[in-house]
Amino acid sequence: MKIEEFVGIFASALDDLDADEVTAATAFKQLAVWDSLAVLTVTDTVEMECGVLLSGTDFAAATTLEDLYETVRAKQAR
User: Fold this and answer.
1) How many angstroms separate the CA atoms of 47 and 22, rounded?
2) In what residue span(s) does the Carrier domain sit (predicted)?
């Protein structure tokens, strides 16, 4: 999976987010739509699409979508 695909997966998980609004460098915690429901929705979508379960620690350690992407890739490699 490429980073662009992951960004698309992230954007598709959040109804109020236009895919054109986000890039790999987006600080996702700063998005207006980012709240506790968004965490759950993104977690579920990433698990379904990528086969990886992100934890609260994973989200806390990440700043950008690229950080999350790298976490997903590392977990897929295990």
Assistant:
1) 20
2) 1-76
